[in-house]
Amino acid sequence: MDHGENPVSIELQEPAEPVPQLLKLISSNEVAGFDSIMQEGETPVFPNPTNSSQPNGHQRKLSISISMPSSPTGATSAGTKNVLFVQDNAKGFKNGVPESCVGSKAKPKGVKFLSQPMPKGSVFGEGANMNQNPNVKKFKDKRFDSFKTWSGKLERQLTNLRGRQQESESEDDSVRPSENEALPVDRYFDALEGPELETLRASEEIVLPDDKTWPFLLRYPISSFGICLGVSSQAIMWKTLATATSTKFLHISLTVNLILWWISVALVAIVASIYLTKVILYFEAVRREYYHPIRVNFFFAPWISLLFLAIGVPPSVASSLPVALWYVLMTPFLCLELKIYGQWMSGGQRRLSKVANPSNHLSVVGNFVGALLGASMGLKEGPVFFFAVGLAHYTVLFVTLYQRLPTNETLPKELHPVFFLFVAAPSVASMAWANIQGSFDYGSRIAYFIALFLYFSLAVRINFFRGFKFSLAWWAYTFPMTGAAIATMRYSSAVTNVVTQTLSVILSVVATLTVTALLVTTILHAFVQRDLFPNDIAIAISDRKPKSHRRWFNLNRHGSSEHNADIDTFLKFANGDTKDIEAALKISSAEAK
Q1: Is the predicted pLDDT of residue 203 greater than 60, yes or no?
Q2: Cα 271–512–443 angle (5° rounding)?
Q3: What domain of life (predicted)?
Q4: What is the pLDDT of residues 356-401, one digit of tens each?
Q5: Greatest CA separation found in the chain?
């Protein structure tokens, strides 16, 4: 067929068989007033839609002639496309069919369709404009698939439904790391450095891009629950201020406790919902946090927050709580402690002397908080059990952290606030034992005095808390300071005088101001400066060790005469025995000295 610029006539003939009745009834030409535009005041006039001389059946009333280019490149050079509409009974046409075809006995040629290639994505709006959108490129980045729960399988299925060409499975498998095996603990110590194991070593590489900002859920750490600990502990403190006998002179209303408690509930719900979404969408990232020897301690924080909400519940909301709630909340503690405390005792890479860190206090303080809640409900054996477990492991942890081994690294300035976790455990332990015994006796006072001494020993070190950047670690100030203030009020109720009452007020004011300042600062960094959640390097380490280079190659880079002499001697005896080679190396080293 000639592909020149001559018009190509597309002729539509009558069907050999009559069209079914349903299609005939819905023909647009037989519906009165269909697709007609009338001016205001104009009377519609409809021509007779049928012609008695024509046979029954659907007929196309217009013949269309389209000028097609001779080649695909002609589509861009053609100026216009001529479309001719020929009415019925026009000159040279009869009923929309050329007269030459009517008089000819030869059958008309069959209808031919000419097609042109369609640009990819032109139908679904996936052209070049969308590919230039940085948000779309970020969404399509396959380097994050290894951390997704479904590893991009759902997206690939949707892509197939939309008609895209799927990439080969072998190529994806070569990029995606193993998803069924957990990262061994040795890799964390080999690839990371620092007391919190959050800094990547110079010889290591990460599996996620380090030149761009990761998705928000990948940057959202489990340590975000520290905010919930600080705010919910404030609800307990203001409840104690309103109900303690030693602070009645302040005339604090329980309304403050009610407002703070509802704020704490909302905050816990928001933080937990975001992290639960991370568990659903990026389970691999959560699993890496769980196997991290330091991050695993923060998995106690969500449950401690729930215990705080139960302790600080306003009397107007619930005067008493069901005992079953205590067993439900303490079950996760028992499961986590069986795992972590067993690793401390059994040794290996997760032994306490190797992973000891102030963050380990979170795995201990939950025992005392649970004992405090259980004793306030009237339970006896359960609170004593958790109090005993917490006391034993706190003693071991306290001694281990106090006499840090020479191989342990000191904490950087950014992590100095976690030292206040030393104060949290004895403060809560004093109140828990007071609830178990029914009075703030000598056992409670011993624990309280230990906490008070640690509090002041840290507070007087002003330079200890200056000159470092804000981070979520700052929330480690709030919970221990609030716990010390609450314990002081309990002690003041047992030993009431001006000194204890004044100390209660001072510590409460300091704790409230600290929480308020940190809450405002956190909101500014999260929503204004947007630097609260940087890329979490600790979860993106590779599961492969870096390639080790030969020793002589590294020595040769220095180019010193001593190193070159060792290499020459080694090459001379390369075909000899191993003992000769070692002896030659010793001789050359001695001569160089």
Answers
A1: yes
A2: 95
A3: Eukaryota
A4: 888 889 999 999 999 999 999 999 999 999 999 999 999 999 988 8
A5: 123
Beta strands 93-94; 192-193: pairing state = unpaired
pLDDT at 516 over 90: yes
Q: What is the pLDDT of residue 335?
A: 95
Sheet containing strand 83-86, edge to edge, reads: 8-10, 63-66, 83-86
String of b and e for 102-123 (b: at least 16 CB within 10 Å)?
A: eeeeeeeeeeeeeeeeeeebee
C-alpha 238/C-alpha 235 separation (Å) is 5
Cα–Cα distance list, 393 to 13, 91, 235, 424 (Å): 93, 105, 28, 14
- Portion of the chain with pLDDT greater than 90, in percent: 39
| 149 — pLDDT class (breaks 50, 70, 90) | confident
Query: H helices of 44-168, where?
Result: 74-77, 99-103, 128-131, 134-140, 153-161
Residues 330 and 379: their CA atoms lie apart, in Å, by 13
Residue in this structure with the two tokens 């330091």, named with its chain if needed: 294
Cα angle 528, 531, 532; round to 5: 95
3-class secondary-structure state, position 406: coil
Both tokens of residue 53?
A: 């001389």
Quick check: helix, strand or coil at residue 97?
A: strand
How far apart are the C-alpha atoms of 107 and 89, rounded to whole Å?
A: 21
Other beta carbons within 10 angstroms of residue 144's beta carbon come to 20
Poorest-pLDDT segment among 12-26, 215-229, 309-323, 408-422: 12-26
- What average pLDDT does this structure show over 582-587? 48
Q: Do 474 and 520 form a contact (C-beta atoms < 8 A)?
A: no
Total Cβ atoms within 10 A of residue 230: 27
8 A C-beta contact, residue 475 and residue 225: no
Entry pTM: 0.67
Q: What are the contacts of 552-561 at 24+ separation with CB within 8 A?
A: 561/592
- How far is Cα of residue 285 from the mean position of the Cα atoms in its chain? 7
Q: What burial class does residue 141 get, using C-beta atoms within 10 Å of its C-beta: 0-12 exposed, 13-18 middle, 19+ buried?
A: middle
- Bridge partners of 206? 541
Rounded (10°) CA dihedral 494, 498, 499, 500: 30
Residue keyed to tokens 């001559």: 6
User: Which range in 125-139, 281-295, 569-583 is most confidently predicted, on average pLDDT?
Assistant: 281-295
Residue ranges in 162-296 assigned as alpha helix (H): 169-175, 185-191, 225-243, 254-281, 283-291
Distance, CA of 470 to CA of 529 (rounded, Å):
12
| Under 8 Å between Cβ of 199 and 192 | yes
